[in-house]
Amino acid sequence: MANTRVTVEIQKYKMLHKDQKYSVDTLPWGMSGYVKKANSKDYAGKVIKLTQQAGPYYYSPDLKGWIDYKALDTVEKINQALTIKNGGYQINPLPWYQGVPVLGNTKDNIGKKVTATGKKGGYYYISNLGWIDHRAF
Question: Contact 26/34 with Cβ under 8 angstroms?
Fold first, then answer.
């Protein structure tokens, strides 16, 4: 059948890319009855859990929908308790790059205990803040 997909249970964590414009859908894209719920750019930088795979599409309970693998990037899944100790580092929606938006600064969060759930390069993902340079901890 052309409009069915085999779904496999998985357990992965990925980050949504920057500058991607993929839809988050109620079913894998193109399946009969799928409805667009959101756009991947609305979740750029977020580390999400993936629980099902159907071909090139993944289901995320965090997004409550399906997304194309091309919108996702590999991150290291961690669960690490940290304390922000150093000011002067940006808090960003994505791991730092030239021109990334700034959400805040670590100087306003000195002493705050946080849990990092993702790591990419030298940056940690704190779900309630954003991405922070490892040198802030």
Answer: yes
In angstroms, the CA 76 to CA 95 distance is 13
Over residues 71-129, the pLDDT tens digits come to 999 999 999 999 999 999 999 999 999 999 999 999 999 999 999 999 999 999 999 99
Each residue's pLDDT tens digit, 111-121: 999 999 999 99
By C-alpha distance, which of 101, 107, 102 is closest to 84?
107
Amino acid at 23: S
4 pLDDT band, cuts 50/70/90, is low
Alpha carbon distance 88, 99 (integer Å): 17
Give the C-alpha separation, 15 to 52, whole Å: 16
Tokens of 109: 């969060």
Query: Is the sign of the CA dihedral 72, 70, 67, 103 positive or negative?
Result: positive
> Of 92, 91, 79, 12, which Cα lies nearest the Cα of 44?
92
